Amino acid sequence: MTEISQTEMRIALLNMREGFALHVEAVQMDAKLKRAKFLALVNEGFTDQQAIELTK
To answer: Domain residues for 42?
Structure first.
């Protein structure tokens, strides 16, 4: 590999790592939102099964 291609590979890897971290954070936020919605529905009187269906 030339120096240029090694540098490009390093940059690409850093970008992938950053993108992965952001994706993981987005998934965590989505899970928290779904959990909050589920709990709110159950708190309002929906059954667990109904809340699950509405949270999908």
So the answer is: 3-55
